[in-house]
Amino acid sequence: MDARLPNVSFRPNLMSLIVTYQCPLECGHCSIFSGPRRKQAMSLDEIQRYIDQASSLPSISTLVFTGGEPFLLGKDLPKAVSYASSRGLHVRIVSSAHWGKNKAKAESLLRVLKDSGLKEINISYDAFHRPWVSPQDIHNAIDAALRLGLPTVVSVQVTKSEFYDLSRVEEELNLRVFSSFDVPLYVYIGAATPVGRGKATLDDDDLISINDLIGEGCNENTGCQSALRQLAVFPGGELHICCTEFDRALTAGNLKDSPLSAIVEAANSDVFFSLLATRGPYGIKDSLLELDPALSFRDTYVNQCHLCKELRANASYRPALEILKREHRDIAFVERLVRVALEERLKKEMRDAAGCQNLRSVEFQDRRVARHTQSTA
Known about the structure:
This protein has helices at 44-55, 76-86, 103-116, 135-147, 166-173, 198-201, 210-214, 260-267, 271-278, 280-291, 304-313, 318-376, and strands spanning 14-20, 62-67, 90-95, 118-124, 152-158, 185-191, 230-233, 238-240, 251-254.
């Protein structure tokens, strides 16, 4: 963090715990390279300490257990869910539902978690997951969740060659049979992003833009809604300012070394993090082109995460980015000075107004005393 901002404050509302890198799946698009051979995981003691820190920030209302595959924690997962719930946090789990092969077992697992305080479950399914998890496995997991009253999200990542629309998802997973359930069931379809393992495995010509999925206008430079608002903690304790791939450029600190509140406060003063949160990757791109029209960018990006990765990785952008960071910092300082001046002026006006009110009150009391004296004379 080479440049600082004065007293800027974005309040995180969600924190994800990537409790393990291990996963029985080894999906080609995985942003954090999860797989069977990656053993690093959080201990229950670490998880509970991170939950304590999350619950100490009033703005954080949701705690997400993800991975890797959080169900690999075994009996520690219900304990972790119960601990987070007891701290007043809304608890979500993100899973591949590899445990859905047996319907009765799936319901048994989820019942324990719901009784422990689980509020919702997100299940990943697409062409990348399909080699390891069948549509029937996913169907069983959804069925168990809905029968237990757990709101469920099915998350699908697509490319041009492996494209899913809502109809295909409904048909492949036989979702229509759940229409009678009075429990929310959502399907989220997003574009597979070339980060993490996907950078090497996803063919550039096969990438699909989010605009092609939901229409134009989603890439406006209105600021990234994840940056500084949705935090992620990796198994080594690294705290990221958003919930994407592991990248040291997005690491704000380590919870093993510093408390969450201190890291969040420091992250709010980082110029690049602030740029992401206020302008977003597309806004940054537009600003860089204003500074240096010769810079070259792709015609389209899968989503803002794709562009964000390129902004951080492409060395040709760095000179203009450094200029932009200095400008952003200078503007922030001026805005801070103006805000302080306005606050001081407002305080003075309020003090003056309060003083006048006190004088009028004293005058009113004096008049009452005078009238009372006259009436008893």
